[in-house]
Amino acid sequence: MTCETVSDDLLAFHLGALDHAHRDEVESHLLGCADCLRGFLALKRSLELEEDGPSPSPASRERLRKAILEELAGPERARWRWWERPLAFGLAATAALVALSAVRTVSSGPGAAPHGIGDTAAQHPG
User: Fold this and answer.
1) Can you tell me the distance from the alpha carbon of 122 to that of 126, in angstroms, rounded to the nearest whole number?
2) Of the candidates 49, 47, 22, which has an alpha carbon nearest to the alpha carbon of residue 30?
3) 97 to each of 84, 90, 104, 109, how far by Cα in Å?
4) Which of 10, 8, 17, 16 is nearest to 37 (CA)?
5) What are the tens digits of pLDDT across the range 31-86?
6) Of 16, 40, 56, 81, whose CA is between 20 and 30 Å from 95?
7) What are the CA-CA distances from residue 4 to residues 21, 24, 59 (Å)?
């Protein structure tokens, strides 16, 4: 690519309007040519900082700010109703008690491991 063909494509490169192969060619040329890179940076700076050109309306700016705030806030958290939190804690406590009861029943039933093996060895020496 020549500097002349790259300079024609700098605006499209900045806006992301080039196809993938052509974009790669422009990128590789910019990495090797300091003059074209300076031209690209000057174009980018003038597009982003120019105040004389058209600017968005106040309504557009407000919509943009609102969209950015919504994006930064992320998905809205589900709010608990006044009765849901105690109900959730109650259900969790009930589940824990049921689990403890089930473990105790299983561990003390027939076929469970013996308790106090050391005590039974002392009672039967031999």
Assistant:
1) 9
2) 22
3) 20, 11, 11, 18
4) 10
5) 998 998 999 998 888 877 776 666 778 888 889 888 888 877 766 656 667 778 88
6) 81
7) 18, 17, 40
